[in-house]
Design brief:
This is Actin-bundling protein. Belongs to the FRG1 family. It is a single chain. This protein has about 280 residues and is of the alpha+beta class. The chain is built from four helices and 13 strands. The protein has helices spanning about 30-40, 210-225, 235-240, 255-285, and strands at about 50, 60-65, 70-75, 80-85, 115, 125-130, 135-140, 145-150, 160, 170, 175-180, 190-195, 205-210. The strands form four sheets. Strands 1, 2, 3, 4, 5, 6 and 13 form a seven-stranded antiparallel sheet that branches. A two-stranded antiparallel ribbon has the order 7-8. Strands 9-10 form a two-stranded antiparallel sheet.
Length: about 280
């Protein structure tokens, strides 16, 4: 059996640098990182996860408040176009008598899912209902939060703020925060006039993994685009934007005559200089 080294069939081009495999003291190599990437790729794109930064809050969104004694979710009633505060203790686990922990909650009804959109590069978001005709969550100057607007405007803009514990606060255009408020009779409602972020102003927010991954990729592309100054072909740019005819030099008959004459004069001048230099060299010889 031949012991000759098998040549790689991978195409290589002249000038390509050979990549060397890095060795680490602990014996690990790039397989560790590739293994992590494979693990991430195996995650179901529709898995509900927590956002780590405000840019990741996009797409289907599940908003929960850890109220006492039971957590609640922010729902939308498509029939009445009204916000509904839903007690999550009604959602029992299938094989357990005890309901899941608030951090393990996922939507069980389309009424619990909102759709978050944003303008590229803007810190604000729009929160639209995922059912019905799609109403936007808004807050007026009196702090009344509603979901009956068909179009978006300043009152429909929210700025998500990620708190140190991972919870999210939503600030409106008036720099006030959305909160859960208890009204007469013990019922709960959404308000948008809180000056500070306390327990009532903190929400657990979940998004789908594919949108979190999308936000990470967008951020990476943006950083790669800003890594260096753009390369500009100055001569080509000047020729294109400082000439007539979309980059074609357009000259009149008189201009052509002048250019022709200048070329002739230039050649004559060069011939005279060559002749003078030759005479000088012959004189010294």
């Amino acid at each position: 059996m031949s012991t000759e080294k098998v040549r790689s069939t991978k195409l290589k081009f002249k000038g390509d640098k050979t990549k060397r495999k890095r060795k680490r003291e602990d014996g690990d190599d790039d397989e560790g990182r590739s293994g992590t990437r494979r693990k991430d790729d195996n995650i179901d794109p529709e898995t509900w996860v927590f956002p780590e930064n405000p840019d990741e809050i996009r797409g289907p969104t599940f908003i929960v408040h850890p109220s006492d004694p039971v957590p609640i979710s922010i729902n939308f009633n498509a029939t009445t176009s009204r916000i509904v505060i839903h007690a999550l203790d009604k959602d029992k686990a299938e094989d357990s008598k005890e309901p899941p922990h608030v951090l393990e909650r996922t939507p069980t009804d389309v009424a619990q899912v909102w759709v978050t959109t944003r303008v590229a590069g803007s810190p604000t978001i729009n929160i639209r209902s995922g059912t019905g005709e799609g109403k936007f969550l808004s807050c007026d100057t009196h702090g009344i939060v509603s979901a009956d607007r068909d179009a978006r405007g300043p009152q429909e803009e929210w700025t998500p703020v990620i708190m140190p514990d991972g919870m999210v606060a939503f600030m409106n255009v008036y720099e006030k925060y959305m909160s859960i408020d208890e009204v007469a009779g013990g019922s709960l409602q959404l308000r948008g006039d809180s000056e500070q972020v306390g327990f009532g102003e903190r929400f657990w927010v979940k998004i789908q993994y594919k949108y979190k991954k999308e936000a990470t990729e967008d951020k990476k592309k943006k950083q790669e685009g800003m890594s260096g100054p753009p390369k500009i072909d100055e001569s080509a740019t000047n020729h294109l934007y400082q000439a007539w005819g979309a980059g074609r030099s357009v000259t009149s008959v008189e201009d052509k005559k002048e250019l022709k004459r200048a070329r002739k004069e230039g050649r004559l001048a060069e011939a005279l200089l060559d002749r003078r230099s030759k005479l000088k060299s012959d004189r010294f010889c």
